[in-house]
Amino acid sequence: MPDIKLSAGDLSFNLKIGEQEPNQGAHLSIYAGGDDHTHGNSTFEADPGFIILEATPAVESEWGEHGYEVHQTARDANFEKIEKLAESFEKLVASSQEKSKNLEKDDVSKSLHEVRKYLFDYYYKFTSSNAHFEVNAFAKSHTIRGPFNVVLDTKTANLVMHFNFRTYKLITKEEFEPIRNLMEQAIIQNIPVKMEIMIPDIAKTSIADYEKRKLAVESGVTK
Q: Fewest CB atoms within 10 Å of the CB: 28, 34, 66, 92?
């Protein structure tokens, strides 16, 4: 995904949002020999700002009696919740409307609504808020004995695996702070907040032009 550039007057901030990243983690290796029952545990933490969309197991080696179970949990500190964003935007829009109530046009409030809608669309795409992943596994072995307790055979167990993750970028609390400051300054100076898409092969383009270009690519019509 391209970066989104927000600007108002001399202030600007580049935000990366909606990016999906592949990751590999939660590596696990356990072995049981003799009369044994072993356990193993491994975790994966999504990078700051990211949530976990998918966790696909990749078994490298396995035999004998073994098993595993996984748990995923949210981590509030990993990204700014949409409820907090909504509360902040509500206060900002109210402040903007109060300041511009005697003006014929309220372009600042309109721009804040546009920014809010664009950012919230990324939150609404997925319902997951998980950022912490944990896998717990076991391997159980036993010996087969004959007369006089002589060991005839040993049934060992083994499990070597990891998980392939797909993660998705939202907004961190640290990122939203300068964004909020930028919008507060836009209200004070009565300057609409401008959004631009920063694309590697094109220096910058408007949100509308980017959406048109994206739609053309998806429909197979490119120019």
A: 34
Q: What 3-state class would DSSP assign to 12?
A: strand
User: CA 128 to CA 76: how far, in whole Å?
Assistant: 12
Give the separation between CA 73 and CA 31, rounded to whole angstroms.
Answer: 27
Judge whether 159 and 139 are in contact, CB under 8 Å: yes
Residue 8, beta-bridge partner list:
11
Residue with tokens 């383009």: 205
Tens-digit pLDDT profile for residues 27-77: 999 999 989 999 999 999 999 999 999 999 999 999 999 999 999 999 878
The dihedrals phi and psi of 109, each to the nearest 5 degrees, come to: -60, -40
Look up tokens 């700002």; give the residue. 49
Q: How far is CA 166 from CA 5, 44, 73, in A?
A: 25, 12, 15
Q: Are strands 194-199 and 202-206 parallel, antiparallel or unpaired?
A: antiparallel
pTM: 0.80
